[in-house]
Every structure is written in structure tokens, then in C-alpha cells.
Design brief:
Chain A: It is found in: Cell membrane. The complex is a heterodimer. Chain A is mostly helical. Chain A is built from 6 helices and no strands. Classes of the chains: A mainly alpha, B mainly alpha.
């Protein structure tokens, strides 16, 4: 069983990094979106391997389903052609420069992370990550942040409608 | 070689820095927006890894809150993008300086 989980982690990690690299390298936004959906689905698989059962479903339904279909719909709705895209002649040198700038940050963070004590990722029992435990914790201990988030979503809904109605 | 929670955290760091790179180097507004979403996802992965680290479920709740914020951000940002594309006909992030008050 150990070798299966190692193989699954390597497959999901490779797919998610490949999707992220495609996201920042492809030119047309629809290719970026499809590549990003690959990343989101692999992250959902990683959630399942971390025993986060409910978040696995949320990631697929909310992120890869709702948010990404909204983005793909808007890209298709605007009918983006080659002429509409910005030129971006120097994006590869910019990316190399950014990578060189970010390397020390990555080195420092990875060093900090790998100095943590080892914790395995076996399945934990006791309903960890299940819907019942999640709901109990959400509605007992986190009820105020939950209400704040509901207000935020309402404000975003009204704001999007107002923005879409008005003529600039 | 055993894969622990540290490997998940390292993957989250790599994904976050790729998102930062996309925001720094690209000018297409959709790509920049999806890079921001990638950074939010990397943060979520770190939350869930730490949640597994301590076997408490607070990280899951924070991840769901981040998802709600991402959904609100998607709705508002895409409305702004549609408005600017219809009025100015450009997807360049440089055009978004007209949003200055």
C-alpha cells in the first residue's frame, strides 16, 4: 500500500506542476484555463490523499466545476482572438528573471518546511474530514466567519450585477 | 523514502511561486487572474496539509472560506474584465490603469 500512495503522490504532484507551468506559459487564455483545470483536479486528488474527503468534493464541484466554468464561459463570451491578446514579446526573459529572483525565497521556504518533524499521511480514523464533523465545527465554532462569508458573497453578487448593468 | 506532510507543503510552495511568476511576467488579464487563483489553491493545499499535520479540522474550514473568497473574486473581477473589454477592446493589464480613481 505504501508504494501505491507514493506513486499516486508523484503522479498528482507532477500533473499539478505541469498544469501550473502550462498556465503561465500558454499564450491563449483558453489553453491556460484548460491547463489550470488539470492542476485543480490533481489538487483534489491530493486532498483525498490527505483524508480531506469533503474538501475533495468541494474542490471538484466549486473550483473545477463552478469557478472554472465561469472563467471559460467569459473567455468564450468575449470571443478572444489573436489580435486581442497583448503582445508579450519579452515574457520568456521576464519569466527567467522572475525565476532567478524567486529562487532564494523557494530555497528558504523549502529549507524551513523540511526541518519540520516527519508526519506520515496514512488515513486517519474518527471521521476526520467527513461532512458531519465539518458541519459541526463550522456551525458551532466558526459561525461568525461563516456569516461574514455569506455577507461577502451577497455583496459580490450585487456588485457584479451593478457593474454589468451600468454603462461607463 | 516515505512521503510525509512535508512533501505536500513543498508542492504548495512550488505552486505558489509559479503563481507569483505568472502574475509578474504575464500581461494577459485572464492569465494573471488565473495565476492569482493558483496562489489561492496553493494556500489551500498548505492549510489542508497543516490540518493533517495536527489532526485538527480548522484548516479545512479556512480552505472553504478561501474558496468562497475566490468565488466572490471571480464574479467581480470577471465583471470588470467584461466591462473594460467591451469599452476599450483590450485584455492588456496596462489598460487597467483607467481604474485609478
Amino acid at each position: 500500500m505504501e508504494i501505491v500512495s507514493i506513486l499516486l503522490f508523484l503522479v498528482f504532484a507532477t500533473l499539478s506542476i505541469a498544469g501550473a507551468v502550462g498556465l503561465i506559459l500558454f499564450r491563449h487564455p483558453i489553453n491556460c484555463a484548460v491547463s489550470f483545470i488539470l492542476t485543480l483536479l490533481s489538487i483534489a486528488g491530493l486532498y483525498a490523499m490527505l483524508s480531506a474527503k469533503l474538501l475533495f468534493a468541494f474542490q471538484i464541484i466549486v473550483y473545477a466545476g463552478a469557478i472554472m466554468s465561469l472563467i471559460v464561459f467569459i473567455i468564450m463570451f468575449l470571443n478572444v482572438t489573436e489580435d486581442d491578446l497583448p503582445a508579450e514579446k519579452n515574457r520568456i526573459p521576464l519569466m527567467i528573471l522572475g525565476g532567478v529572483l524567486l529562487l532564494p525565497v523557494a530555497w528558504f521556504l523549502l529549507k524551513v518546511v523540511f526541518s519540520l518533524p516527519y508526519v506520515g499521511t496514512e488515513i486517519v480514523g474518527g471521521g476526520f474530514g467527513g461532512a458531519k464533523e465539518f458541519g459541526l465545527m463550522l456551525y458551532y465554532d466558526w459561525i461568525f466567519p461563516f456569516e461574514v462569508v455569506s455577507a461577502l458573497l451577497l455583496v459580490a453578487l450585487v456588485g457584479a450585477v451593478v457593474l454589468a448593468k451600468r454603462r461607463i | 523514502m516515505f512521503i510525509g506532510v512535508q512533501a505536500y507543503l513543498a508542492l504548495s510552495i512550488i505552486l505558489f511561486l509559479l503563481g507569483v511568476l505568472g502574475v509578474m511576467a504575464r500581461r494577459n488579464v485572464f492569465t494573471v487572474f488565473m495565476s492569482v487563483e493558483l496562489m489561492l489553491n496553493a494556500g489551500n493545499l498548505a492549510f489542508v496539509s497543516y490540518s493533517r499535520f495536527w489532526e485538527g479540522m480548522e484548516g479545512h474550514i479556512l480552505a472553504v472560506m478561501v474558496m468562497a473568497v475566490a468565488a466572490a473574486e471571480a464574479a467581480l473581477a470577471l465583471a470588470v474584465v467584461v466591462l473594460i473589454f467591451r469599452n476599450r477592446g483590450s485584455l492588456d493589464t496596462d489598460f487597467f490603469r483607467i481604474l485609478r480613481g
